[in-house]
Design brief:
binds pyridoxal-5'-phosphate, Aspartate Aminotransferase, domain 1, seven-stranded mixed beta sheet, three-stranded antiparallel beta sheet
Length: 355
Amino acid sequence: MKKHNFSAGPCILPQSVLQKASEAILNFNNLDLSLVEISHRSKDFVDVMENARSLSLELLGLQNKGYKALFLQGGASLEFLMVAYNLLEKKAAYLNTGTWANKAIKEAKLFGELIEVASSKDYNFNYIPKNYSIPSDVDYFHCTSNNTIFGTQINHFLKTDVVKVCDMSSDIFSRQMDFSQFDLIYAGAQKNMGPAGTTLVIVKEEILGKVSRTIPSMLDYRVHIGKDSMFNTPAVFPVYVSMLTLEWLKGLGGISAIEKINNQKATLLYSEIDRNPLFKGFVTDKEDRSKMNATFNLTNDSFSETFNNLWKEAGINGLKGHRSVGGYRASMYNALPLESVQVLVDVMKELERKA
Ligand SMILES: *Cc1c(COP(=O)(O)O)cnc(C)c1O
């Protein structure tokens, strides 16, 4: 039986998607060829790429609004520098909410002046800073919508007239919002969309072409847009699986439908964390709690061996917290069923009975 997979990333994907993906590895579209051994310029694959790109925009409600969707390589980590390469002329403003934001800041510093508008480093990133403002003279503002490691999520995005960039690697397609407030969104596929190896970039074309530096072709968003995301050989398998996941999501009723389920999962788990005296949430302000990655600790570490054995016996995988936080992290991405969260909650209750 399949495990209850709470892995933070690479993470759980819908079983039906994995089934179709494995069939395509052997025989894609009845071509009597594998998906991974045909030309990426063949009509069969070009259709996959076009479908993946248009589904991304459709699900986010960004069609016909001047945005282009790209499936690039190099992970979200390459976007940390590509964003700056393409947009940073003099100054940029960054919100520092954890490890990933920090890495984005480090790369952008290579290209210009960085203003850290706020940081939650003082409490090991267990909250989202609220009282800050975005300077009006910066080339762009960058934030991280969901902090995968610390388990915080931004619920109120500040309004601003400057270009707004968001790393949505770990919560894209998980909740409804006005995505058109952003000019550039990027997300590594392996958290909520597909296997590692491709990164979705959604960019408003009008913000490009404004920096004076020469941009190498592979790092230039305009080059990738000009070639319909096929400037070089794309990561065909990750793009295909991402397309299948997006089709699955559309079939469920899109982001608003999955958001309802994600809310149920988060409510179920956080209620137990709050109720059960053996557990304590890591994030101080409840409104900052991530619905994707719930971080929590035991109130008494002497129960850790018993707890670890209980969840492993229950068929749970991937519950260990990141080394910079410790404790536990339950990642509840789109494909994780509500039943898996119930299994975890039952284990937490069982520990309470045993303690
Ligand atoms: C995982 C993650 C990244 C890094 O993604 P890679 O694809 O491994 O480069 C960046 N940002 C966030 C928010 C993440 O969760």
